[in-house]
Specification:
By secondary structure, the protein is of the alpha+beta class. It has 4 domains: 129 residues, no CATH class; 165 residues, Transferase(Phosphotransferase) domain 1 (Transferase(Phosphotransferase), domain 1, Orthogonal Bundle), CATH 1.10.510.10; 92 residues; 110 residues. It has 21 helices and 11 strands. The strands form 3 sheets. Strands 1, 2, 3, 4 and 6 form a 5-stranded antiparallel beta sheet that branches. It has a 4-stranded mixed beta sheet with strand order 5-10-9-7, covered by helices on one side. Helix 12 packs antiparallel against helix 17.
Length: 554
């Protein structure tokens, strides 16, 4: 039987998970189980014929409490679910946003043992000093201050002992439960298996500190030359998959207004810098810090923002960023049908979606904000109003786009805390304008794509003479026409269509290859660039004229 019960060694944990959810009022879920899942009832001591009790009031709060009670894996699961308004209704999203990833610290002796295992030496032999009292303690790791032999101050992020085994067990159980739920009526609405797989991928990445170190290096590269963001260095010689050693940075917590004012920092500049950072990450780099709560940022002299904790990041492909800009353009034009069309092209709205209803609800939202100055629009408020629409119509955007929405709302919250007049839309406007312009401008990527397609057309043209010779040989031997009259007519018609298609293919290949050469070789010089564009336009016009001529003769 394909069920969680195949893993007897985890049976105690299965019962613990189910008993916690039953205690918090989720017994009604067993009413969704079909005949194939009846063994689950027996193992978890749930009678098969007793109707489940109705869900209690405040079920969303009970869901959060159950996740907190079940430990780090489920807390992380809840935090990730809080970024998915397409999966849960707004009350659940609001409750899961309250989840705190803080736990009592692990005793120093256990952390010391992990360090010794990972570094191959006693920690005292590697570091000049280590503070046994942690700077921070979370569900997966805790952080200790230390100094290197040369006196450099660092922080050591150490994974909690045995946490990997606990999480592996919980992930296996979640995957098994997801498969069981997929066979229920709820499985026709939610892809539980995909949700469990996405979560497992995200959490395993967060447990790999080599990956977190590479994330820090990538941010540093992306912001090279940007004076208002500081990324601490990574001491790779001391890093393993369970230990990360970073340069220690000093500053005032970004939400400590009293300390910022006492230090003479300009809070408006700090808010401006924080907004520019996230907008650059999202719209230019496609790689953003996805956990921007105030504890992960400090303000350093010169209103420079120092960033920490690079375990959770988001990725946006160029296509995702351009799709967001297209949605923005349609929203500004109040074109609800255009928004629905764009959501369909993005794969967010399925073919069965109620297009009229979705357009109507989006239209109401747009009308509410139409005509308001941008400084009076809050990203968090817009996100809270989008959530019910996303849940009602099951809009299936990529997880990173939902994560982006929460990230922007969090950064706006930081900015408003620093400066009540903070306007994220005004800060983002130059970036949006530049990306919108790119939608209509030829780019080097176009040339590269055309070169690849030109190569494929070239292969087709190379193959055509061989195919043509074989076809002529068959005609000379009379093999092609050894058919009845009707079939011969069809064959002649096919040959005529083939001839037209070949001619069209040659013209199309010439257009593609010409465009690829003109655009891919365009230099940075503006004059050369526009000459290339004008030449490409002329080539397209000539090709269209030739195509029309061929079609008229056909």
């Amino acid at each position: 039987m394909s069920s969680p019960l195949r893993s007897i060694r985890h049976l105690h944990r299965y019962r613990e998970i189910v008993s916690v959810f039953l205690k918090h009022g989720f017994g009604f879920v067993f009413g969704q189980l079909g005949p194939k899942q009846h063994p689950l009832r027996r193992v978890f001591h749930r009678p098969a014929r007793v109707p489940p009790s109705p869900p209690p009031e405040g079920l969303a709060a009970h869901f959060r409490q159950a996740l907190e009670e079940l430990g780090p894996t489920f807390v992380k699961f809840g935090q990730i679910l809080s970024t998915r308004p397409d999966l849960l209704p707004p009350p659940y999203i609001a409750e899961l946003s309250k989840l705190q990833d803080t736990v009592p610290p692990t005793p120093w002796e256990s952390i010391q043992e992990v360090l010794g295992q990972e570094l191959g030496h006693a920690p005292e032999e590697v570091f000049a000093t280590i503070d046994p009292a942690p700077l921070a303690a979370a569900s997966l790791a805790q952080v200790h201050a230390a100094t290197l032999a040369d006196g450099e101050e660092v922080v050591i992020k150490v994974q909690r002992p045995n946490i990997l085994g606990t999480i592996s067990t919980d992930l296996e159980i979640l995957a098994a439960l997801a498969r069981a739920l997929q066979a229920t009526a709820l499985g026709r609405v939610y892809d539980f298996v995909a949700i469990a797989e996405d979560f497992a991928f995200t959490l395993r990445n967060e447990l790999d500190y080599h990956r977190e170190g590479r994330n820090a290096d990538r941010f540093r590269t992306n912001f090279a030359g940007v004076p208002y963001l500081y990324i601490p260095g990574v001491y790779w010689e001391f890093c393993t998959r369970r230990v990360l050693v970073l340069e220690r940075i000093w500053g005032i917590k970004i939400d400590d207004l009293q300390a910022l004012d006492a230090a003479g920092y300009d809070r408006h500049r700090v808010a401006l810098h924080s907004a520019r950072i996230i907008i650059k990450e999202v719209l230019e780099d496609g790689f953003f810090h996805a956990d921007p709560h105030p504890g992960n940022f400090v303000v350093m002299p010169g209103e420079v923002i120092g960033a920490m904790d690079f375990g959770m990041v988001g990725h946006l492909r160029e296509r995702d960023r351009l799709n967001l800009i297209r949605l923005y353009v349609e929203a500004v034009a109040l074109d609800t049908a255009g928004i629905v069309d764009q959501l369909t092209r993005m794969g967010a709205a399925g073919s069965a979606v109620d297009r009229d209803g979705l357009a109507r609800d989006i239209g109401r939202l747009l009308i509410k904000y139409h005509g308001l100055p941008l400084k009076d629009i809050r990203a968090r408020e817009v996100a809270e109003e989008v959530m019910p629409i996303a849940f009602r119509y099951r809009l299936q955007l990529p997880p990173d786009l939902w994560l982006l929405g929460k990230t922007l709302a969090m950064m706006e919250g930081v900015g408003l805390h620093l400066d009540p007049d903070f306007d994220m839309f005004a800060v983002s406007e130059p970036f949006v304008r530049r990306l919108t312009w790119q939608l209509f401008m030829p780019r080097r990527a176009w040339g590269q794509a055309l070169l690849r397609q030109g190569t494929e057309w070239g292969e087709l043209l190379n193959a055509f003479p061989r195919v043509g010779n074989r076809l002529l040989d068959q005609i000379e031997r009379g093999e092609l026409f050894r058919r009845d009259v009707g079939e011969a007519d069809r064959t002649i018609g096919a040959l005529e269509r083939l001839g037209r298609q070949v001619a069209l293919s040659i013209v199309a290949a010439g257009l593609l290859i010409g465009l690829s050469v003109l655009i891919a070789l365009t230099a940075t010089n503006a004059l050369v660039h526009w000459l290339a564009v004008i030449g490409a336009v002329a080539l397209v016009g000539s090709g269209i004229w030739l195509l029309v001529s061929i079609l008229r003769r056909a």
